[in-house]
Amino acid sequence: TLSCYDRLIFKGYLPFGGDDHLNAFVDGRLRIRRKDFLPEVQRMSQQLVEHAQEMAEEAGVPYRYLQGKHDKKRLIDRIARDRGHPEGLLAVLCFQETCRTVKLRWGRKRPRLEFAYRPQRVLYYYFFDPEFGRMHVRIQTWFPFTIQVYVNGHEWLARQMLRRRLGFVQQENAFTQLDDPAKAQQLADRFPALRWQTQLARWARVVNPHLKRGWLRGAKYRWVIDQAEFATDVIFRSKAALAELYPRLLDHALVNFSAQDILTFLGRRLHGRFDGEVITECKKDRWPGARIKHRMKNNWLKMYDKFGRLLRIETVINQPREFKVRRCRLRDGRRQMVWCPMNKGIVNFYQFHAVALAANTRYLEA
How far is the C-alpha of 179 from the C-alpha of 181, rounded, in Å? Predict the structure, then answer.
C-alpha cells in the first residue's frame, strides 16, 4: 500500500480585503483618483501578458491565445511529447475567463471601486519542474492578480525515488509497482512538511513581475489549500485478483454503507443540526473503470480501480471547515486544546494529511 497526495491546488491572494479596504488603499496609499485606478490596472494587465509572451519566446516554447473550450491536458501532453520532456517552461496558454476583479460604480458623493466578476485574460504557465514534475501556475491578469498553483504528489514522489534509486513503475498518476513500499511511504509522508511558503512565493515571482516593481513591490501572497486529493493505493500482484474482488467491494459499499457510516469515515457524527446532503453514487459503466463516490456537502470519498492493478481510496477536501481538529485556543484566560474547524491556510497542511489518511483508513477497514 501507498498513501500519497494526488492533485493539490493552492490559491494565492494579495492582501486586499473588501471594497472598503480597496478604496482606502487607492485613496491613501496610491493617492490617485478612483476613476484612474482602472486604466492603471489595464496597463498592468497588458504587462503581464507581454511578460508571458517574452518568457515563452526566450524558452522557445509556444504561447497560444485560445478561445472556447479546449482540453488543456491533451494539448500540453502533445506539446511535451514533441519537445521531449525537458525541464523548464513547456508552454503558456491564454484564455478568456470570468474572474473576480474590480469595477467602478456610481457613488453618492464620488465613484466607488467594488469587487465584481467580469471577463478577463487568464494565463496558464505549464512547467516541468525538477522537483515537482509536470505542474502549472494560473494567474489572473486583472487586479487583484489571484494565482492558482497545481502540483501532483505522485509526480513529486517519483522524483524523490529516482534520486534515491528506488525501483518503481509509474503509470500516469499512480505506481503499479514499488520495490520498497516502506521507504516510498516514508518519502511520501514528508510532502506536507516541505517549505511551501517559500516554494509558492518563488513561483509567484516568476509569473507576476509586479511583485518586484511599482506599488506592488514587496507584496506577499496569502496562500491557502483550495483542493486536496489524498489517495491510498492497494497495489495487487495480479489483475485477476483485483478483477475478482472489486465488483464485490462496489456492491458491499453501495448496499451496506449508510449516510451515518460515510460521516463516520470522514470523522463526523450524524446529529440534528447537520445541514447538508450525504450522497452515494456508483457508476459501473464509467470509462476506464467503475467508481463509487460518497459526497458529504462538497467533500468526497471515492473508490475506484486504476489500470486493473491497484485499488484506490481517495479523500477529496474542498471544504476543510467541515472537519474538526484539535488546536490551542485562549479560553477563560487560559490556553487549552479545543476542537475547532480546520482552515484552508497552508499552516494546516499536516491537519489535511491526518484527516484524509484517517478517512481512507476507516473506509478500507470497513
Answer: 6
C-alpha cell belonging to residue 96: 478568456
Q: Flag whether pLDDT at 223 surpasses 70.
A: yes
pTM: 0.91
For 193, the 3-state DSSP assignment is helix
Which residue, among 213, 182, 196, 170, has the nearest Cα to 306 in the 3D structure? 170
Q: Please say whether the beta carbons of 90 and 83 come within 8 A.
A: yes
Q: From the CB of residue 242, how many other CB atoms can be counted at a distance below 10 Å?
A: 20
Cβ 336 vs Cβ 327: under 8 Å: no
Helix 153-163 to helix 181-188 angle (10° resolution) is: 120
DSSP at 29:
I
d(CA 138, CA 153): 18
Q: Check pLDDT > 90 for residue 293.
A: yes
Q: Given this model, what pLDDT does residue 315 score?
A: 97
Q: Where are the alpha helices (DSSP H) in the chain?
A: 19-24, 34-59, 72-83, 153-163, 181-188, 196-207, 239-256, 259-265, 349-365
Q: What is the pLDDT of residues 44-83, one digit of tens each?
A: 999 999 999 999 999 999 999 998 888 888 888 888 888 7
Averaged pLDDT of the chain: 91
Q: Which residues face 316 on adjacent strands?
A: 229, 300
Amino acid found at 64: R
Report phi then psi at 298, rounded to 5.
Answer: -110, 25
Centre a 10 Å sphere on the Cβ of residue 110 and count the other Cβ atoms it contains. Answer: 11
Copy the grid coordinates of residue 233.
Answer: 493505493
Per-residue pLDDT tens for 97-153? 999 998 888 877 788 888 999 999 999 999 999 999 999 999 999 999 999 999 999
- 85 falls in which pLDDT band (50, 70, 90)? low
DSSP 301-354: EEEEEETTTEEEEEEEES-GGGSEEEEEEEETTEEEEEEEEPPSBGGGHHHHHH
CA distances from 123 to 51, 57, 60, 126 (A): 11, 15, 17, 10
